[in-house]
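$ ./design --mode recover --in tokens.txt
reading tokens...
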């Protein structure tokens, strides 16, 4: 038990969560008739008795250079190895193998943000050439080879999947950092992964203006250098080839325009490097409870098989569909369900550069109408926003979705119903997919033709995934009670390790519920997801949110420690604490509390400095809603900041018993200061759901 756990008044698992059972919605017959998975026998094929052999069905969807011999090797538990002995290339699987049947079909349709610019279709043949040319450049000009890491910091342009697939062609491990992250955040990830090459773009459109993006590359290289990693080359794509959109100079001998260098590689063909199934394909960084980001390392064979299988059955992707996932490729959703899954299946995947509501709330529906999108995938945050700014927009456009996805955060049933009725025109089936950066692909979702939808629940576990909800001591909790959701078995999409931090892989995900660290039996190693969840008697799961110090803002994970260390880079700040506030659009927003060193003047300027520090260290997505400068933080006698107390103040909920604190008197002062200011800003205390209240009450007690 760590300090602070003793202060937890109720553990997640003791809380009975009462929530209204929602009605089922059934998939339309027209959907069922064409679905990839329409035969209930699939549940038997993937039942626990058939594990792990059931996953052969997914590996059979890929083209292998050499077949695997062992489906699952557990000898280095819990560092699982899938499809051992098999060899394949991910780029071959996503590009080359489609040439025979559909070379002239669009692999990617890229939609620039300015609406006056036409969408650009890239056929599979065209993609093949672009990937080969860039692979040749990477190999011969970049000097990289299989196993090397390359960092990408690219926006939503078609060049991003081209670069990813070029890396995959060479067996080079790509690490794409979300374009909205700051230069410093990118630099930290460059250093952590040991990349010598950074691939970026000069600028991109966001809400009608061109963002200077290359400036972040200079910051990233400087930050990486500070952390001991030198970058030899920065490869800069230009949003408009030949026209440089950035204010920053190109550094002689380090920075190169891709559109200039690529000329020497025109028409070159690079044989795909045949990689072992367990070779890493990419790293995807995510936040945890410490400041250092975690590079989830994903494999070539297991990952690709898993995203291909789940894209086929859960996204119901057929080669003739036009599929649009609005997520950013800089997050795992984009890697798995914009790039690798859809392209492996040979479909058309749409990539949109800009913000969904630019220039107005009708934009997504015009794109859907214009391109004939029939599968649509987005997050609750985007749905809430589009509902707020344009509730009646969808009906003005003549598009028809057969299938829609929501991902990344819990969706309120009322928002779900708008998605179903307004966006889906009551003719689309919906899947609410629950999963994580670490898991590679879906963990919870209804199988669209075979299980009804239930608003607010992600549905049952996906096929081949066997969850359990445990209390703190590892006992399963009964249905209707909240606990820590774990996955009892390994699956092909699970990350292989945390890059460079195998001990963290063990301690964060497995230590809590493993009873025998020497066991080579997978049954001994439940995977700890870090989410609270409840199972209903029908086997549907409702995800309650993180049980660790992670705040889910608009479906993106922000670690409290990262936010706090960013605030502490301001020299005047003595202490900092980040807490979540319930937000109508983004699910949660961040509020920062800081106390200053003696003699430092509080005030707006100081608050702005803290916000600015967070933008520099992490990026604008992490910008706090408010920065409260307080005289002191509420603390336990052992000196731990009581985040749940300030979280309660920020959310206008009950702070609970504070009499055991070292400084209980400060609580009232902070409450007055913060709540008065909030009311003066026009903020109204919200009616919170029971689960939201519980989240606030137990925040930071883990
Ligand atoms: C965390 C993972 C999954 C890709 C995008 C986010 C939350 C995710 C759902 C959902 C309720 C969800 C969980 C999870 N989450 N999907 N459908 N319903 N909560 O990936 O950044 O790794 O975040 O997002 O808390 O642990 P991520």
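writing sequence...
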């Amino acid at each position: 038990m760590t300090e602070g756990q003793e202060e937890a008044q109720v553990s997640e698992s003791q809380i009975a969560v009462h929530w209204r059972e929602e009605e089922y919605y059934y998939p339309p017959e027209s959907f069922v008739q064409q679905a990839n998975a329409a035969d209930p026998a699939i549940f038997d094929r993937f039942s626990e008795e058939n594990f792990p052999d059931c996953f052969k069905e997914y590996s059979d969807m890929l083209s292998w250079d050499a077949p695997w011999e062992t489906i699952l090797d557990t000898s280095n538990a819990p560092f699982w190895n899938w499809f051992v002995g098999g060899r394949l290339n991910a780029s071959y699987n996503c590009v080359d193998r489609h040439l025979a049947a559909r070379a002239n079909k669009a692999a990617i349709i890229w939609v620039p943000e300015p609406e006056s610019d036409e969408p650009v279709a890239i056929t599979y043949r065209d993609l093949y050439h672009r990937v080969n040319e860039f692979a040749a450049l990477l190999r011969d000009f970049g000097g990289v080879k299989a196993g090397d890491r390359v960092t990408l910091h690219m926006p939503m342009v078609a060049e991003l999947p081209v670069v990813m697939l070029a890396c995959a062609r060479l067996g080079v491990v790509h690490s794409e950092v979300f374009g909205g992250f700051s230069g410093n955040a990118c630099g930290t990830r460059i250093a952590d992964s040991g990349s010598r090459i950074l691939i970026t773009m000069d600028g991109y459109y966001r809400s009608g203006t061109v963002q200077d993006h290359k400036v972040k590359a200079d910051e990233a290289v400087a930050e990486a250098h500070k952390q001991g990693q030198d970058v030899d080359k920065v490869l800069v794509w230009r949003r408009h080839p030949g026209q440089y959109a950035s204010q920053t100079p190109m550094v002689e001998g380090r920075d190169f325009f891709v559109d200039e260098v690529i000329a020497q590689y025109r028409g070159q063909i690079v044989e795909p490097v045949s990689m072992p199934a367990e070779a890493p394909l990419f790293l995807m960084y995510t936040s945890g409870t410490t400041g250092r980001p975690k590079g989830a390392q994903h494999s070539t064979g297991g990952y690709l098989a898993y995203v291909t299988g789940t894209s086929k059955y859960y996204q119901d992707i057929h080669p003739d569909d036009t599929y649009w996932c609005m997520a950013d490729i800089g997050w795992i959703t984009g890697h798995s369900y914009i790039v690798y899954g859809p392209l492996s299946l040979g479909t058309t995947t749409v990539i949109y550069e800009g913000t969904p509501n630019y220039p107005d709330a009708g934009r997504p529906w015009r794109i859907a109408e214009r391109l004939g999108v029939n599968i649509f995938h987005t997050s609750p945050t985007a749905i809430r926003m589009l509902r707020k700014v344009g509730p009646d927009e969808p009906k003005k456009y003549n598009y028809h979705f057969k299938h829609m996805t929501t991902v990344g955060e819990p969706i309120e049933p009322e928002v779900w119903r708008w998605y179903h009725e307004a966006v889906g025109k009551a003719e689309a089936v919906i899947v609410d997919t629950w999963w994580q950066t670490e898991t590679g692909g879906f963990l919870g979702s209804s199988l669209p033709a075979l299980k009804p939808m239930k608003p607010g629940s992600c549905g049952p576990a996906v096929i081949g995934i066997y969850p359990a909800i445990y209390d703190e001591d590892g006992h399963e909790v009964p249905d209707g009670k909240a606990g820590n959701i774990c996955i009892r078995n390994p699956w092909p999409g699970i990350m292989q390790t945390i890059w460079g931090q195998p001990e963290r892989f063990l301690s964060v995900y497995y230590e809590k519920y493993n009873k025998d660290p020497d066991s080579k039996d997978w049954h001994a190693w439940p995977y700890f997801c870090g989410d609270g969840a409840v199972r209903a008697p029908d086997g549907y799961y409702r995800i309650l949110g993180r049980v660790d110090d992670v705040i889910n803002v608009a479906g993106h994970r922000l670690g409290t420690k990262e936010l706090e260390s960013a605030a502490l880079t301001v020299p005047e700040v003595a202490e900092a604490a980040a807490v979540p506030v319930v937000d109508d659009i983004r699910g949660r927003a961040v509020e920062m509390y800081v106390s200053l060193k003696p003699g430092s003047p509080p005030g707006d300027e100081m608050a702005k400095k803290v916000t600015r520090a967070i933008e520099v260290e992490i990026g604008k997505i992490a910008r706090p809603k408010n920065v409260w400068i307080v005289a002191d933080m509420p603390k336990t006698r052992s000196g731990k900041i009581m985040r749940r107390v300030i979280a309660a103040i920020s959310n206008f909920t009950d702070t609970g018993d504070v009499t055991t604190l070292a400084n209980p008197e400060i609580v009232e002062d902070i409450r007055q200061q913060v709540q008065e200011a909030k009311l003066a800003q026009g903020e109204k205390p919200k009616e919170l759901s029971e689960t939201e209240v519980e989240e606030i009450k137990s925040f930071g007690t883990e």
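exit 0
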